[in-house]
Design a protein that fits this description.
By secondary structure, the protein is α/β, with parallel strands linked by helices. It is 52% helix and 13% strand. The chain folds into two domains: 2-136, Rossmann fold (3-Layer(aba) Sandwich); 142-205, Arc Repressor Mutant, subunit A, CATH 1.10.10.10. α7 (151-161) crosses α9, α7 crosses α10 and α8 (166-173) crosses α9.
């Protein structure tokens, strides 16, 4: 039996996932969580075999939560289920300890295949993500500017590019405005840019934001 924790801030998504998983033999949904802190608490209380994790929930950064989950439950498999395209967070998620990355647009059959694959201790990655991972193994001297960013800095970049203000980002990540401003400054510096408009244009041009 694969014991699953569903972590997503949208009730309809959680209900849909529960409906899909509950209809399959060999899978049991043991808990749900709607934010990062609930996810950590539920993981501690239920010790699931697998966590379906949305890395865009309110609260602390999703990559930070993923890393914390792997520290607390090293034998638990984390499958990231995200609305973000693979080229935004897939490689970072896997490098942070995720066993796989699927987008919310996949079919139920693909999701179940991913769950069964990672529950056996194997990685579930698409050919596109595999190619990205290989590229990251190469010499990084020619890496793109955004690949120089830390996970938190990259997260702030994506949020800025999506049109969110520093205040909105601070509220969503439960951090101070000053802290987010500091991250923004670091992002601009590392990417040799001076304005949020430049960051937004860069992100859209490379398919990191719409």
């Amino acid at each position: 039996m694969i014991r699953v924790l569903i972590a997503d801030d949208h009730m309809l998504i959680r209900q849909g996932l529960r409906g899909i998983l509950s209809s399959v033999s060999g899978i049991e949904v043991v808990a749900e969580a709607e934010d990062q802190e609930q996810t950590l608490t539920a993981a501690d209380e239920h010790s699931p075999d697998l966590i379906l994790l949305d890395i865009s929930m309110p609260g602390r950064g999703g990559i930070d939560t993923l890393k914390e989950l792997k520290l607390r439950l090293p034998d638990c498999h984390v499958l990231v289920l995200s609305m973000h395209p693979e080229d935004q967070y897939a490689v970072r998620s896997i490098r942070a300890g995720a066993a796989g990355y699927v987008t919310k647009g996949v079919s139920a059959e693909i999701l179940l295949d991913a769950i069964r694959t990672v529950s056996k201790g194997m990685l579930y990655i698409t050919p596109a993500v595999a190619e990205q991972l290989v590229q990251h193994l190469d010499d990084k001297s020619g890496e793109s500017p955004h690949e120089k960013l830390s996970d938190r800095e990259f997260e702030v970049l994506i949020m800025i590019a999506s049109g969110k203000s520093v205040g909105q980002i601070a509220e969503e990540l439960s951090l101070s405005v000053q802290t987010i401003s500091t991250y923004r400054t670091r992002v601009l510096d590392k990417m040799s840019m001076t304005t949020s408009a430049e960051l937004t244009h860069y992100a859209i041009a490379r398919g990191l934001a719409e």
